[in-house]
């Protein structure tokens, strides 16, 4: 699951392929009545080919808006600054044909609720083959391909499954079908936006196992989005932590876990139940998450932060290098975290 770029597969001296995904200082504002409401503020993140990257934060932090931007799916009327590049092409300026190419071959997304992704009246086989057919694959090949994909995601009796309708599947099985459909176009990048949040715990683990196995087998870049830092750590090489529309910390998973630099990351770690016998009981992050629109001019987390000083609510911390990662906290160098 390490970041191997296209460089390894090309002859020496060949021009290397542009990076798989680069979100570069993306800001998104929505017009709400007269005052435009900010949603994302200068979000930058990247995913290399074959890499698994976690995007973590509480509900409302802007994870889904960031993900959807990658497929050119921003809300109507959104005002956008910055760039989203997939293999070097700016998604936000693509025309219809460019977007179609992006969504059919380069990048695919799996959403939280599998039932919202499928037409309840259509057979699973139609759902799986429609994209392939639209891309010109002959019917017989598309069916054979869909059956192989169902087999790959662990659906038994793929042929029978093709004839069934969504209500005949459990949530976990249907999410496998949705993952199969996302992989049908052999995307280089898969974005999984809380793919297991709607599922029970046992099913969650199975679906995560399917995703990570397929990612490893196919060398797909995976952006794995969750509110659960522990789950992100279990699958990701690197992690971005998001709060109120901004990235507040990022780094290699091990380093981030061993030594978080942002009090919010430390808070997310402290609220995860641990299995070690002498571990302290989980403590929730006090207060409720703010959206970017509600946040103070300085650090958006300062209102909930046990380490906040007067300057924290006035001065906005930039994302700066600390150790091997980046953190946006004025006090990140002070060793304030236990
Ligand atoms: N289509 C939309 N219209 C208006 N507001 C939206 C829309 N999508 C998201 N938002 C707002 O943007 C913020 C971030 O939302 P979202 O990206 O869904 O967060 P997350 O996925 O981290 O829970 C929230 O305040 C949400 O209300
Ligand atoms: Mg979301």
Unique bound compounds: adenosine-5'-diphosphate, magnesium ion
Q: What about the largest sheet? A: 8 strands, mixed
> Helical element count?
11
User: From the structure provided, what is the oligomeric state, counting identical versus distinct chains?
Assistant: single chain
Strand order of the largest sheet: 6-7-8-3-9-10-12-11
Give me the CATH superfamily of the largest domain: P-loop containing nucleotide triphosphate hydrolases
Helix and strand composition category: alpha/beta
Gyration radius, rounded: 21 Å
* Percent range of helical residues: 25-40%
Distance between the termini: 31 Å
Unreliable stretches (pLDDT < 50, length at least 5) are: 1-10
Write structural notes for this entry:
With 338 residues, the protein is an alpha/beta fold. It folds into two domains: 6-243, P-loop containing nucleotide triphosphate hydrolases (Rossmann fold), CATH 3.40.50.300; 263-334, no CATH class. The protein has helices at 63-70, 96-106, 114-117, 124-134, 139-152, 158-163, 171-183, 201-218, 229-235, 253-258, 263-270, and strands at residues 21-32, 35-47, 52-56, 79-86, 89-90, 107-110, 189-193, 221-226, 238-243, 246-252, 320-322, 325-327. Strand 7, helix 8 and strand 8 form a beta-alpha-beta unit. Helix 5 crosses helix 7 (171-183) and helix 7 runs parallel beside helix 8 (201-218). It starts with 20 loop residues before the first strand and ends in an 11-residue tail after the last strand. The model is unreliable at 1-10 (pLDDT under 50).
């Amino acid at each position: 699951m390490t970041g191997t770029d296209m460089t390894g597969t090309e002859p020496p001296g060949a021009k290397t392929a542009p990076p798989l995904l680069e979100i570069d200082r993306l800001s998104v504002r929505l017009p709400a009545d007269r005052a435009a409401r900010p949603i994302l503020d200068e979000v930058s993140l990247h995913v290399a080919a074959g890499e698994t990257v976690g995007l973590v934060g509480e509900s409302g932090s802007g994870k889904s808006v960031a993900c959807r931007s990658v497929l050119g799916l921003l809300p109507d009327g959104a005002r956008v600054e910055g760039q989203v590049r997939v293999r070097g092409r700016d998604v936000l300026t693509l025309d219809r044909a460019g977007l179609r190419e992006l969504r059919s071959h380069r990048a695919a997304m799996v959403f939280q609720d599998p039932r919202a992704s499928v037409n309840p009246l259509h057979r699973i086989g139609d759902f799986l083959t429609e994209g392939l057919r639209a891309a010109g694959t002959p019917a017989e090949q598309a069916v054979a391909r869909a059956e192989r994909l169902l087999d790959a995601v662990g659906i038994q009796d793929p042929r029978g499954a093709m004839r069934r309708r969504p209500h005949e599947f459990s949530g976990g099985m249907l999410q496998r079908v949705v993952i199969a459909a996302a992989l049908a176009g052999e995307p280089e990048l898969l974005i999984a936006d809380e793919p297991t949040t709607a599922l029970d715990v046992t099913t969650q683990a199975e679906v995560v196992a399917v995703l990570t196995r397929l990612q490893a087998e196919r060398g797909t870049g995976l952006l794995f989005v969750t509110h659960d830092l522990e789950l992100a750590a279990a699958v990701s090489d690197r992690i971005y932590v998001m709060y109120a529309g901004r990235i507040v910390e990022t780094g290699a998973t091990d380093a981030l876990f061993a030594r978080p630099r942002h009090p919010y990351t430390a808070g997310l770690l402290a609220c995860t139940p641990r299995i070690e016998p002498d571990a302290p009981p989980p403590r929730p992050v006090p207060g409720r998450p703010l959206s970017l629109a509600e946040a103070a001019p300085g650090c958006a987390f300062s209102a909930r932060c046990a380490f906040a000083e007067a300057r924290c609510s006035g001065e906005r911390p930039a994302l700066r290098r600390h150790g091997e990662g980046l953190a946006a906290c004025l006090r990140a160098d002070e060793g304030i975290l236990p």
